[in-house]
Design a protein that fits this description.
Helices cover 54% and strands 7% of the residues. The protein is α+β, with helices and mostly antiparallel strands.
């Protein structure tokens, strides 16, 4: 729906067409390059020590998605030895805190099972191979700086390609201005940018990329010659759908879009032979790709189909739809209000393109139902509604229709005004989250009202109070070791050490004080220790003596709404005594 050419004369028409061809070729590239550069700057900010001093890029859920790579390329098996051993490792100069890896022992077989699927690792593999070669050349351990850098570069690269494709797709239907505004709204007006930079090791940026690729192929399938077979395009769509499911299984619902277009083609041509051939080709390609995950599940559990999340699941009869959409606790429209424009745009979308409009609406409605049925409908403590990052390429289209309607019916400057305000609000909240000025789990209206006051005393505005990074790279003389087979010694809090679950008795943590004759007492509350896991040198981390009291007069510093894993972690970290000092 490009705007009509109003200029008169042949020369004006030719000039406008030339400008259109230039925009079609260059604008998507310029937009993607700009997003890539801004993302690099954001990553420097995030990982420079300003707000993530002790959190490497590969962490939390991203650690579980990434675990396939060291297992295959370093361990040459799927027992997850290296990922388990390094989950409390040192990255550069900073120790890694408690890290939920998603790797558990499957009770029926006794083998380790990664609950996350392997699609993210498969897409990261080229970057990992290069990082692994560099690390081996420099004799660096797994999860060291080359691996972390490669993980960041992988996320940024796939996202840049995804944004390029998204703008190109939008420009086939909308003006250049509306296309760029809609893409900017998706990238900077929602939490998408957060999951590219702050949490780039998670699966969401890769799902974003795969959905844009799927749409690109599906649109090409739609404009081909109707009487010819497009088996190759169906194979491509089936393969991408396999990667979509391999990356995040619930996202298989996007298969409704190519299915709708194939059905539309049959309705117009009535050629059943081509229809059957194309559908079978797509299904075969999907099964070939997804068989990688089936093979892993069978190797770990003895079953081709399994709930790898084991004790987690869906409550299909009680979906928290209203909470998922409107709650302060990660509600979709609360943390990304610009998406309300997409709700306005859907009637126009369905009116101008009934097949795609209904298909997109069906997929997004299913996504809301599936996500709101998950036991943890807020999906942990990320910024905003996390699972909808995967579907943002779909939302961009009704969003563009909404902006177009507002610009034509309400006020011509409405789209630009809305997107500027939305981006400023989103970036302010995102920076507040990054700098821990907003709670990571439950945010109240009071927390939002107190934000300006908290920013006034923050280190970003007062550089003189910025915390300094610990320098841990000088050589140390080794002292007397102490050993923990399951957890830290009694009376010891080890920064960066995760209490080992009961099924991991085979892991052995050994820490040696870095200074001869060092004591860990109330008078000597901080020392440095050399760490080994199963005989593999990890690096040097700080260890602390800390007195902790959990009675009513000295309440826990942890929020009461945190789960038992955090409470167990607290108990293991913080009950301290001078027993070790007396023994020495």
């Amino acid at each position: 729906m490009h705007p009509a050419i109003t200029a008169s004369g042949k020369g004006a028409v030719i000039q406008t067409e030339s400008l259109g061809r230039w925009a079609q070729a260059r604008v998507p590239l310029l937009f993607a390059a700009s997003v890539f550069l801004v993302s690099i700057l954001a990553c420097f900010y995030v990982y420079s020590g300003c707000c993530m001093r002790y959190r490497p890029p590969i962490r939390s859920d991203g650690y579980g998605y990434y675990a396939y790579l060291p297992a295959v390329f370093i361990d040459h098996d799927l027992t997850m030895k290296t990922p388990l051993a390094y989950r409390w490792t040192v990255v550069g100069k900073h120790p890694l805190p408690y890290n939920w890896t998603g790797i558990e022992r499957y009770e029926r077989t006794g083998r380790m099972l990664d609950k996350y699927t392997s699609g993210t690792a498969l897409l990261q593999a080229p970057f990992f191979v290069v990082a692994n070669a560099v690390a081996q050349l420099l004799r660096l351990p797994p999860y060291s700086a080359p691996y972390q850098f490669a993980s960041v570069l992988s996320a940024l690269s796939f996202f840049a390609v995804g944004t390029y494709l998204l703008v190109r797709l939008l420009m086939t239907r909308f003006s250049t201005l509306i296309s760029v505004i809609s893409a900017a709204a998706v990238v900077f007006g929602t939490n998408v940018f957060h999951f590219v930079t702050f949490a780039g090791s998670f699966s969401h940026v890769y799902s974003f990329f795969l959905v844009t690729v799927l749409l690109t192929i599906a649109f090409r399938y739609r404009v081909r010659d109707r009487t010819s077979s497009a088996t190759n395009l169906c194979v491509a769509m089936g393969s991408i759908l396999g990667l979509v499911a391999l990356t995040r299984v619930p996202n298989i619902i996007v298969a409704a879009i190519p299915l709708a277009l194939v059905s539309e083609h049959y309705y117009k041509t009535r050629i059943s032979g081509i229809l059957v051939r194309e559908i079978l080709a797509g299904i075969a390609a999907f099964l070939v790709v997804f068989s990688l995950q089936l093979a892993y599940w069978h190797a770990a559990t003895g079953h081709f189909l399994v709930n790898s999340y084991q004790r987690e699941g869906f409550n299909w009869l009680r979906p928290q739809v209203l909470n998922f959409l409107f709650s302060l606790k990660k509600g979709l429209f609360v943390w990304a209000p610009v998406l309300l424009i997409a709700v306005l745009g859907f009637p126009c979308f369905v009116k101008f393109d009934k097949v795609l409009g209904i298909a997109f609406l069906a997929v997004l409605s299913l996504e809301v139902y599936v996500c709101s049925s998950w036991w943890s409908w807020w999906f942990g403590g990320p910024f905003g509604s996390r699972p909808f990052v995967d579907m943002m390429p779909l939302i961009a289209f009704p969003l563009a229709y909404g902006f177009e309607w507002l610009g034509g019916r309400v006020w011509r400057f409405a789209p630009v005004s809305i997107i500027v305000l939305s981006i400023l609000l989103n970036l302010f909240l995102m920076l507040s989250y990054w700098n821990e000025l907003l709670p990571s789990n439950v945010t109240s209206a009071g927390d939002l009202l107190r934000l300006p006051a908290r920013w006034k005393t923050h280190a970003l505005l007062l550089p003189q109070v910025l915390p300094r990074s610990r320098a841990l790279d000088e050589p140390y003389a080794l002292g007397t070791p102490f050993i923990a087979a399951v957890g830290p010694p009694a009376g010891m809090w080890v920064e960066g050490f995760e209490p080992t679950p009961s099924y991991d008795h085979d892991l052995r943590l050994e820490m040696t004080f870095a200074s001869n004759g060092a004591l860990l007492t109330a008078r000597h509350p901080r020392q440095r220790a050399l760490v080994q896991v199963n005989g593999v040198s990890i690096g040097v981390i700080p260890v602390w003596w800390r007195q902790f009291r959990s009675d009513a007069r000295h309440p826990s510093p942890f929020a009461p709404e945190q789960d038992n894993r955090s409470n167990n972690l607290l108990a293991a970290r913080c009950r301290c005594a001078e027993k070790l000092g007396h023994q020495r």
